[in-house]
């Protein structure tokens, strides 16, 4: 009996042990599934120091931004390869503007013009009272004045006491006098004394009916023009004469001085020629006073080939833009009323 009880007890222990093992196995199986689910979850990164943790896992490291390397002193900063032009230096605020004013000399009475500043220089021509010319220079004491004149070099000298100067003569440059002419007899015989007052040298009569007077140039970049006025010896305006402009390959006539039915707005004694082609107008021209010979009653033709010359051909250069406006005045010495008309056309009121 005791032996059977012992067997039953051992059997119960064995069954209990087996049941405990199965229960333990079931419990262990459930925990493993939960741990696997946790293992597949993505962990958030941890930002901390760059040292490894005690567990041996390498942590995320933040890399700082490197500061820019400072430019060493005296080292030029690299520039664009394009060339930069310097800005123009502005003029001083209070710098006065210098005006280039033309100084003119007007003849007071008929006089000689000479090759130099003195009576020991040759007489190269004459000047008529009331006519004007541009002043080009002066001697040191301003007793003689150099003016524009239709000579070989375009210049002549006049005695300052016999002209009226318009403008500031001090602004005109002092011109070095040319050497005086060589005197063939340095010791001429003395002139006999006389109580009679020495008579002034007679002014030679002009060779041409018209002679040039007051010729000068001015600047205008937009137009090329030759113009002027014709007067007689008394300063009266002369009508009815034209100016011929000729450059050797092209000729053109001005409308006769003064107004006509074809050009009623022209002033007494005035003439002008405007060149539409600025480039072709440049260079040397000759200007001549002529009498128009075509049929003027039927109209005016600037290319008229029939005319009569009353002056010598005077050369003048047109150089744009500095000398694009040429002023060329003339003096009439005789028969000044024998042009196409002496009285300018008057518009009917």
Task: Spell out the key features of this protein.
349 residues, alpha+beta, SH3 type barrels, Immunoglobulin-like, five-stranded antiparallel beta sheet, 2 helices
Topology (elements, then pairings):
Elements: H1 2-39, E1 104-107, E2 111-114, E3 123-127, E4 132-138, E5 144-148, E6 155-159, E7 163-166, E8 210-218, E9 224-232, E10 242-246, E11 251-253, E12 270-275, H2 278-281, E13 283-292, E14 307-309, E15 314-318, E16 325-332
Parallel strand pairs: 9-16
Antiparallel strand pairs: 1-4, 1-7, 2-3, 4-5, 5-6, 8-16, 9-12, 10-11, 10-13, 13-14, 13-15
What would you note in describing this structure?
The structure is a single chain. The protein has a five-stranded antiparallel sheet, with no helix packed on it. Strands 10, 11, 13, 14 and 15 form a five-stranded antiparallel sheet that branches. Strands 8-16-9-12 form a four-stranded mixed sheet. Among the domains are: 104-171, SH3 type barrels, CATH 2.30.30.40; 210-332, Sandwich (Immunoglobulin-like), CATH 2.60.40.10. Helix content is 12%, strand content 26%. Mean pLDDT is 76; it is low at 23-68, 77-87 and 95-99. It is flat, with a radius of gyration of 55 Å. It is of the alpha+beta class.
Helix content: 10-25%
Task: Give the tally of β-strands.
Answer: 16
Distance between the termini: 175 Å
CATH class of one domain: Mainly Beta
Number of helices, where a helix is a run of at least 4 consecutive DSSP H or I residues: 2
Strand order of the largest sheet: 6-5-4-1-7
CATH superfamily of one domain: Immunoglobulins
Gross CATH architecture of one domain: Sandwich
What's the overall average pLDDT, rounded? 76
General shape: flat
Order of helices and strands: HEEEEEEEEEEEEHEEEE
**Strand pairing plus helix content: what structural class?**
alpha+beta
Overall radius of gyration: 55 Å
The largest pleated sheet is described as: 5 strands, antiparallel
Oligomeric state:
single chain
Strand content: 25-35%
CATH level-3 fold name of one domain: Immunoglobulin-like
Low-pLDDT stretches are 23-68, 77-87, 95-99
């Amino acid at each position: 009996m005791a032996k059977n009880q012992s067997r039953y007890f051992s059997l119960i222990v064995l069954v209990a042990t087996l049941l405990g093992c199965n229960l333990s196995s079931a419990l262990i199986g459930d925990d493993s599934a939960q741990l696997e689910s946790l293992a597949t979850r993505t962990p958030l990164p941890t930002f901390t120091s760059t040292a490894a943790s005690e567990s041996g896992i390498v942590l995320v490291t933040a890399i700082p931004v490197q500061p820019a390397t400072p430019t060493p002193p005296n080292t030029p900063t690299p520039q664009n390869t394009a060339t930069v032009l310097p800005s123009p230096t502005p003029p001083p605020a209070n710098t006065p503007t210098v005006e280039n004013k033309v100084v003119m000399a007007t003849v007071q009475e008929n006089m000689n013009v000479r090759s130099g500043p003195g009576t020991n220089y040759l007489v190269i021509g004459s000047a008529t009272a009331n006519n004007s010319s541009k002043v080009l220079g002066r001697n040191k004491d301003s007793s003689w004045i150099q003016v524009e004149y239709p000579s070989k070099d375009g210049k002549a000298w006049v005695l300052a006491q016999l002209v009226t100067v318009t403008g500031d003569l001090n602004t005109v440059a002092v011109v070095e006098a040319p050497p005086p002419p060589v005197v063939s007899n340095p010791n001429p015989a003395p002139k006999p004394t006389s109580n009679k007052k020495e008579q002034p040298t007679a002014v030679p009569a002009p060779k041409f009916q018209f002679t040039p007077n007051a010729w000068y140039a001015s600047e205008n970049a937009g137009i090329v023009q030759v113009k002027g006025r014709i007067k007689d010896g008394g300063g009266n305006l002369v009508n009815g004469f034209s100016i011929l402009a000729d450059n050797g390959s092209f000729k053109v006539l001005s409308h006769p001085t003064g107004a006509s039915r074809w050009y009623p707005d022209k002033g007494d004694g005035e003439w002008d020629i405007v060149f539409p082609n600025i480039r072709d107008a440049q260079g040397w021209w000759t200007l001549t006073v002529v009498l128009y010979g075509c049929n003027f009653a039927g109209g005016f033709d600037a290319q008229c080939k029939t005319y009569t010359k009353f002056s010598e051909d005077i050369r003048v250069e047109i150089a744009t833009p500095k000398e694009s406006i040429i002023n060329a005045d003339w003096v009439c010495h005789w028969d000044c009323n024998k042009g196409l008309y002496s009285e300018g056309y008057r518009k009917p009121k």
